[in-house]
């Protein structure tokens, strides 16, 4: 029986040729399986080939390069452009009346430390601001940590939208404090995701590849063009079975956790604006 088991393993491994493993549908299924515990960033594959990866805050991040590229990075920062992936930072979104937002947010910051959420240049949505947050009405004690924020420009109504980016190590404390000052205890909607498992289409495809002596099913009409939908399982700081949005019944303020939904990149260097100008193209707006 032992010899038979070893023989079966060898036969099954032979069927997994490189062409079958490198199919897009199988790659996505394998990537989803490998990031069950630690979330991957969109640039994970690029970093994994060039960096020593570490597991921090529920993510798999690049820590140090495998080659001597410190001089190249410094040269890019001073003369060209250097890009950093900061998508592991958590984004908290606040929606509601501007007056109510500013009234409650003033309790967790102080003008003595510098800019606040009420700064005119930041309130218009033209610039990004940074400040230190404290527990409600506890300044200068009980500091929560530094954050960056940006307002969505006004659209003519009294409702505003605010995005706050926090470090994943500080996210739970800051989110708990925001829900407390706005009294957002009721979830707006329950968000329950499935575990990172392959879909029915992916399972059928994998079974066809691993089955002994069988070829790929011909009834798959899409063939190589079949692209499975990427599953969003939350982020490294949130359980996928927890709710991701809360609303206050009295004021209507809504708090949403947008972590891993909004990507964030940092460009450093004198040619940063040139790179953005060449990369981003204005879309044509068609009015009906």
List keywords for this structure.
single chain, 288 residues, Alpha-Beta Plaits, three-stranded mixed sheet, 12 strands, 22% strand, globular, Pop1, POP1 protein, Pop1_N
Quick rundown:
This is POP1 protein. The protein has 288 residues and is an alpha+beta fold. The protein contains 10 helices and 12 strands.
What secondary-structure arrangement, pairings included, does this model have?
Elements: H1 2-15, H2 18-21, H3 24-34, E1 39-40, H4 44-48, E2 51-56, E3 59-65, H5 70-79, E4 82-85, E5 90-97, H6 98-105, H7 120-123, E6 129-134, E7 143-151, E8 159-166, H8 171-182, E9 186-187, H9 200-210, E10 245-247, E11 254-257, E12 265-268, H10 272-279
Parallel strand pairs: 1-3
Antiparallel strand pairs: 2-3, 4-12, 5-8, 5-11, 6-7, 7-8, 9-10, 10-11
